[in-house]
# Entry
Amino acid sequence: MVCHEAGHNNISSTTWINHTVGFIAHSMIFLPYFSFKITHLRHHKTTSHLDKEEVYVPYLRSDFPLPSAQEATPKDYMDVFEETPIVTLCLRESILHALTLALTYAFRLLDTYLTWNTMGSKRYPIGSNHWNPKSGLFTNEEYAQVMISNIGMMAMVALLYLTARLSSVSVVVVHYFVPFVLTNHWVVAMTFLQHSCSTVPYYRGEAWSRTKGALSTVDRPFLGYVGKFILLGVNHYHTTHHLFASIPFYNLPMAHAAIRPLLGDMYNYDSTGVFRALWRSFNECIFVESEGAIVFFKDTQGNAKRNVKVLGGDPSRA
# Structure
């Protein structure tokens, strides 16, 4: 979480200190500091805007071979989304299935997002990634920053290689690779749940505003007090962070206490346990409609937990 704070210039009031801490900390966990910072800050400016959001962009109905909402039948959804009978019978409703989905997804997504823009914005050309300074993710002015980030990655590879030579590969695996994989898991699990909930809206066009986007995030008591302490409250006060990203983590509890009463029903909070919440989101947050100014996630049967009622119109197209 120190990486995250440095990326928002919240470690120090001095820019070079933020960059130094952020560069070293990010490189140690194979996150390209400047490259990731650029797209992450862009995410804060476009949260929940379907056409401009940077990451965790929902799939659309048009991404699947599905008829329109008015024409689709239960069989259409079953043909597209149902798993093989043996998987459905043995795993679909089981804890094992939940853990399998959660662990597989969370271990892989961070690296695939960085490398292949998985669940990233579709407005970028195919092949856009965080490693290529000429990628569609970056401008010409950001070329040097991306290259510096890559140098940090190469330095970390060299350090791990040297460590393996001086000690052993097993030392690197036990003391670096295993913690690295676990870190990947928790980072993806946290961020996915912050921005994936069937009762939280996504917007298009003029229906979106930066404030609406910031309020389309979910606060969760991730890992309880331990999570609040170790993860610097990034999950407990995520809505406040999106509203005021320049507030350092140590001031977020005070800011949250002041803001929370003002938000009323606009505030989103979910106390569901981590793996149960992941399982629920995997099942309920499948796609959104390809049209509509305000849309909500739909599940594998094409049902939404919430809909926008349009006077004189069809709610499914809202």
